[in-house]
């Protein structure tokens, strides 16, 4: 191993300190302006393999950056066809932002992967069923626990998924619509009850993971800033987040 090697990426030291705090249950070392999902995944990798935290953080970023091709391919194939999906992935590899983050010790590759997975879930939700809403719910829950700036992405997923949960029928596949029409023998009351249960189940699959995500973050010994505290810590020197983020005392965490 190269003794001069160090982790790379935007704010890599924050991610490393968060992973260290989670690994050794050392709350004072945790960076309160960072959210715990990404460093927790790296901590679990270190616990399972024994590799250094800096390596596991970078490994997680590389794996999720490569795995992002799966939901992107699904989206491209469903919307435009297989050739367009492959071309889109090839074009993605040329983006400087993507290549910069592929091996970086930062939560942003995880955010990109989860956002792509949630978008793929929404595309699948347009065809009915139940599983797509679970995918969107899990992706949104993980996004909320990965980075505070992911709130808008999660809210967007939540809004679109709620609409599709109410509008899309049990199964919406044009190639099967004629068969479903022929085999439809249930009464109106049974269809109404079945539709209500289906839509309630979709909403539950969407919302329960998000609730679980907040309960999980609240159960940890380390505590991240709330959105209000994040704004104060960023914009107001010596703001409310100062007790958990000493670097905020001089100029807010972005300039401290």
Describe the structure.
The protein has 13 helices and no strands. The protein has helices spanning 12-24, 37-49, 53-67, 69-80, 82-93, 96-101, 108-125, 131-144, 151-167, 174-183, 188-219, 227-235, 248-251. 68% of the residues lie in helices and 0% in strands.
In terms of topology, how is this protein built?
Layout (H helix, E strand, L loop, with lengths): L11 H13 L12 H13 L3 H15 L1 H12 L1 H12 L2 H6 L6 H18 L5 H14 L6 H17 L6 H10 L4 H32 L7 H9 L12 H4 L5
Helix pairs in contact: 1-2, 2-3, 3-7, 4-5, 4-7, 7-8, 7-9, 8-9, 8-11, 9-11
Notable traits:
single chain, mainly alpha, globular, disordered C terminus
| Secondary-structure-derived class | mainly alpha
DSSP strand tally: 0
How much beta, percentage-wise?
under 5%
Largest sheet entry: none
Distance between the termini: 34 Å
Note the overall shape.
globular
Oligomeric state as shown: single chain
Rg: 21 Å
Low-confidence stretches: 239-256
Mean pLDDT across residues: 80
H/E series: HHHHHHHHHHHHH
Short précis:
The chain has 13 helices and no strands. The chain is mostly helical.
